[in-house]
Amino acid sequence: NSSESHNCAKSILTSDRLQIVVTLSEFFNETWEAANCANCLKNNSEGLSNSTEEFLDLFNKSLTCFEHNLQGQAVDLSPNNYTEVCKNCNETYTKLNDLYNHLQRMNRQGGESAHSAHLCIDVEDAMNITRKLWSRTFNCSLPCSDTVPVIAVSSFILFLPIVFYLSSFLHSKQKKRILILPKRIQSNASLVNIQEKYS
To answer: How many C-alpha atoms does 98 have within 13 Å on its Cβ side?
Structure first.
């Protein structure tokens, strides 16, 4: 119905007691907003954004790699021995993880979708699934690239007090206390004796 009359909308949308059409419409709109679905789309919502398509492609490659490497191993494999998966899928998982971190940074700055700072729920759920498989199920881990800078900064901070006290000791002059003896010791003593006599 192309009519924009208020009575027409009222009769169609709110004619039943439950107002099922309005309720469902509000539910789907709230779900769309809460899931940040617009962040997976291009600005004009014509389709998935390029970054989302790239992420989903890498996500599928990661899952395929996990599955392929699990099939090549023995059936009686112990739960903690997934070395083949960790070794062979490390590169794919690292790319996926880096892309996800890049998408998060881009979205905070207003990326392709120009919406809120959260990624859409499909991307976040896909990354959560992959991280859970990688760390909990396969017990794999990525080497931390920040180890050397962290150790360097920590060592520098630990040595700061030593450097500070050493430099203050070397560059400050140690002042000795010199006692200056008063010149009239006897006169003061005699003045006190005189006062005691008169009191």
So the answer is: 8
Backbone torsion region of residue 182, taken as left when φ is above 0, otherwise alpha when ψ lies between -120 and 50, otherwise beta: beta
How many residues does the structure list for the chain? Answer: 199
Task: Encode pLDDT of 72-113 as tens digits.
Answer: 555 444 555 688 888 899 999 999 999 999 999 888 776 554
Give the Cα separation of 51 and 42 in Å (integer).
10
Helix axes 121-132, 90-108, angle to 10 degrees: 150
Nearest in space to 65 (alpha carbons), one of 34, 96, 39: 96
Neighbouring CB atoms inside 10 A of 120's CB total 24
The residues with which 48 forms a beta bridge, in sequence order, are 41
Query: Which residues are within 8 A (CB) of 52 and not within 5 positions of it... i.e. 6 or more apart?
Result: 40, 41, 120, 122, 123
Q: What is the pLDDT of residues 153-189, one digit of tens each?
A: 888 899 888 888 888 877 766 555 666 666 655 555 5
Whole-prediction pTM: 0.60
